């Protein structure tokens, strides 16, 4: 997941870390610990890796000291705001073939977009680029589920308006729930832009509310260390 996944989906981003979503069970955590050991990864931030920490929704951060990886940062999470539990994410995963590596499991694009709806400024332009790239490389006759995904998540006015006109039958029920799409269809660019910003602001606020108790919990743990 994260920036590396965005690159694999064709949305270029400069990133120096690898974000991993992991399943929390004893066997898998042992595998993860062995992999981190092989990468000579050291913990760089509190808290330490554990099943309880990951299940609560916290991230665990590491830095690889393996020669040739240039101190690559590795961030591990098991629970993210706004997305389904790991089991469902895994069933919907994409397998991307990389030369010399093999199949690489990546969050599905819809799940990646949901995971990117954070309070961080850099994530919102990335959502726009992810959808633009998906529309650009789509087959001539995309599946209705893919079109509906575009209509729900596209943040580029020109593309949103074009999609609405090309797929009017699918647009109507989604436009009824998405004011920004309705405004784009009417050609009211200023109002559509304002409504897109309102969508973003709501998600940013939800993300802030989600992380507020986790930050308090983390600070309590940090202060309680012996």
- Rg over C-alpha atoms, rounded to the nearest angstrom: 20 Å
Quaternary organisation: single chain
Distance between the termini: 34 Å
Which structural class is indicated by helix and strand composition?
A: alpha+beta
Apparent shape: globular
Elements, N to C (H/E): HEHEHEEHEEHHHHHHH
Strand order of the largest sheet: 1-4-3-2
User: Strand content of the residues, in percent?
Assistant: 5-15%
- Helical content band: 40-55%
Number of domains: 2
The main pleated sheet reads as: 4 strands, mixed
Number of helices: 11
Count of individual beta strands = 6
Structure description:
The protein is 54% helix and 12% strand. With 226 residues, it is α+β, with helices and mostly antiparallel strands. The chain has two domains: 3-108, no CATH class; 123-209, no CATH class. It has a four-stranded mixed β-sheet.
Helix-strand blueprint:
Elements lengths: L2 H6 L8 E5 L4 H13 L2 E3 L7 H6 L3 E5 L8 E5 L8 H6 L2 E5 L3 E5 L2 H7 L7 H14 L7 H10 L3 H10 L1 H8 L3 H7 L3 H35 L3
Helix pairs in contact: 7-9, 8-9, 10-11
Give a short summary of the structure.
With 226 residues, the protein is an alpha+beta fold. Helices cover 54% and strands 12% of the residues.
List keywords for this structure.
226 residues, 4-stranded mixed beta sheet, two-stranded antiparallel ribbon, 11 helices
């Amino acid at each position: 997941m994260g920036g590396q996944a965005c690159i694999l989906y064709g949305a270029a981003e400069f990133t120096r870390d690898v974000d991993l979503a992991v399943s929390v069970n004893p066997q898998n955590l042992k595998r993860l610990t062995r992999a981190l050991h092989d990468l000579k990864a050291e913990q760089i931030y509190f808290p330490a890796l554990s099943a309880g920490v990951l299940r609560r929704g916290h991230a665990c951060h590491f830095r690889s000291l393996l020669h040739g990886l240039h101190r690559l940062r590795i961030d591990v999470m098991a629970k993210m705001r706004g997305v389904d539990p790991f089991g469902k994410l895994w069933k919907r995963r994409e397998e991307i073939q990389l030369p010399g590596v093999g199949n690489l499991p990546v969050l599905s694009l819809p799940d990646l977009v949901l995971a990117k709806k954070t309070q961080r400024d850099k994530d919102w332009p990335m959502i726009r680029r992810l959808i633009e790239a998906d529309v650009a490389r789509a087959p001539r006759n995309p599946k209705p589920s893919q079109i509906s995904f575009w209509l729900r998540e596209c943040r580029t006015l020109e593309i949103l308006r074009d999609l609405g006109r090309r797929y009017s039958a699918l647009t109507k029920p989604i436009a009824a729930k998405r004011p920004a799409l309705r405004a784009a269809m009417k050609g009211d660019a200023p109002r559509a832009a304002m409504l897109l910003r309102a969508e973003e602001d709501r998600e940013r606020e939800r993300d802030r509310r989600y992380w507020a108790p986790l930050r308090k919990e983390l600070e309590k743990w940090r202060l309680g260390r012996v």
